UniProtKB/TrEMBL annotation:
This is Tyrosine--tRNA ligase. CDD domains: S4, TyrRS_core. Keywords: Aminoacyl-tRNA synthetase, ATP-binding, Cytoplasm, Ligase, Nucleotide-binding, Protein biosynthesis, RNA-binding. PROSITE patterns: AA_TRNA_LIGASE_I (PS00178), S4 (PS50889). The gene is tyrS. ATP binds at residue 254. It comes from Nesterenkonia halotolerans. The keyword Transit peptide does not apply. The keyword Nuclease does not apply. GO terms for molecular function: tyrosine-tRNA ligase activity.
Length: 441
């Protein structure tokens, strides 16, 4: 695939800027909390403050979509690119066939056909977040290109001889697995050699001198720096970004046990927006630093808003707008905001498109009811908004029951077919905030 065919079509890239109040991008990365661990900090700051360098980050196709952990890396790539440096976006067609070791157990190996399909999916997603134009335009690479033709004997003789088993087994993730009941296979144990080989190849082909990734990958990152040092007698850099956690110590990027994917088919723009909108006051400023391009001054203003008027949730709304617009586009974000307003009676329900209503239904209690049995009493009971027919009738009598934001007076009347949104949905509300969506069977 050529570089021009990978040109990003994301209009948000044109408006992105690093914060000019920082002396260099290294200082901004530190302020944003994106530096957990690195090789020589002073040398790395000099490198990022000087003439353009080539750097890379790798993404393994272990799923059909990238998620929020990957978004941290993509935005870090973009920030460094905006400083004039040139990114290599590596999609692991070979390492994806192996999978890096997990803390708990062996990975399930996917077929080459599935991995190849996911490689294409990730390449499409990555091009949305970095630019492939100009002197600092990115290049997409696939490590299958330089591994598939290497024989086992060549790999052991030319690459394996630089690695020491004693060092390899001291890597945190390997040590944990070795001390577990399951142990670790030679396949996953060898992953760090493959990733080191990537760095060596990119150093040789592109003069790449910086690799970064999550700090949990530090052992794999330093495998590459050590291999380049041993094989080429050259010093290169590695940077580990922190794993993002919530203020209560729980893992960030999960919503009721589900990963927050960047693919709209796996996580709708509505669910995505709501995830960001629901960030706590304790976490929202850190999220703004990591996931948006707002300046230090702008974020300070939002921090004051959190302290002085937290009920307005101004910082959360800014965060949700910025990240959802980046990932899904401004039009999709506006639709989500309009839909949220309409659901709570501050807009026209009829203007919510069907895909957004489907997304809303995944976030609300729901029930499926035949059209000829759709009375307000049944809808309230079946959706769980009330526990009994009697409670439903009392809610209706007290004026606290709504269908499609219209107050209900007769709980036993079957709703007219024209009431169904897109012929499929009814929005049921009890009081101001208790909502559910009914599907027509």
């Amino acid at each position: 695939m050529t570089q021009t065919s990978l040109e990003s079509t994301n209009p948000a890239l044109a408006d992105q800027r690093n914060d000019a109040s920082f002396e260099n991008v290294w200082q901004e990365l530190n302020w944003r909390g994106l530096v957990q661990v690195s090789t020589d900090e002073e040398a790395l700051e000099r490198a990022l403050s000087g003439e353009p360098i080539v750097y890379y980050c790798g993404f393994d196709p272990t799923a059909a979509s990238l998620h929020l952990g990957h978004l941290v890396q993509l935005l870090t790539m973009r920030r460094i690119q905006l400083a004039g440096h040139r990114p290599l976006a590596l999609v692991g067609g070979s390492t994806g066939l192996i999978g890096d070791p997990r803390p708990s157990s062996e990975r399930t190996l996917n077929t080459p056909e599935v991995v190849a399909e996911w490689v294409d999916s990730l390449r499409t997603q990555i091009k949305h977040y970095i630019s492939f134009d100009g002197e600092s335009g990115a290049t997409m690479v696939n490590n299958l290109d330089w591994t598939q033709g290497v024989t086992a004997i060549e790999f052991l003789r030319d690459i394996g001889r630089y690695f020491r088993v004693g060092t390899m087994i001291k890597k945190d993730i390997v040590a944990k697995r070795l001390n577990s009941d399951e142990g670790i296979s030679y396949t996953e144990f060898s992953y760090q050699i493959l990733q080191g080989f990537d760095y060596l190849q990119l150093f040789r082909q592109y003069s790449c001198t910086l690799q970064f990734g999550g700090s949990d990958q530090w052992g794999n990152l330093t495998s590459g720096t050590e291999l380049v040092r041993r094989a080429e007698n050259a010093q290169v850099h590695a940077l580990g970004t922190p794993l993002i956690t919530n203020s209560d110590g729980t893992k960030f990027g999960k919503s009721e046990g589900n990963a927050i994917w960047l693919d709209s088919e796996l996580c709708s723009p509505y669910a995505f927006y709501q995830f960001w909108l629901n960030q706590s006051d304790a976490d929202v400023i850190d999220r703004l630093k990591v996931f948006t391009f707002r300046t230090r001054e702008q974020i300070a203003e939002l921090e004051r808003a959190v302290e002085e008027e937290p009920f307005k949730r101004e910082a959360q709304r800014a965060l949700a707008w910025d990240v959802t617009s980046l990932v899904h586009g401004e039009d999709a974000t506006r639709k989500v905001i309009d839909a949220s307003a309409a659901i709570f009676g501050r807009g026209e329900l009829g203007e919510i498109d069907e895909p957004t209503l489907h997304a809303v239904s995944a976030e609300l209690p729901s029930a499926t009811v035949p059209a000829d049995e759709a009375t307000a009493v049944r809808l309230l009971v079946d959706t769980g908004l009330v526990k009994s027919n009697g409670e439903a009738r009392r809610a209706i009598k007290d004026g606290g029951a709504y269908i499609n934001n219209e107050k209900i007076d007769d709980g036993d009347a079957v709703l007219d077919s024209s009431s169904w949104l897109h012929g499929k949905f009814l929005l049921v509300r009890r009081g101001k905030k208790n909502l559910a969506l009914v599907h027509r069977s």
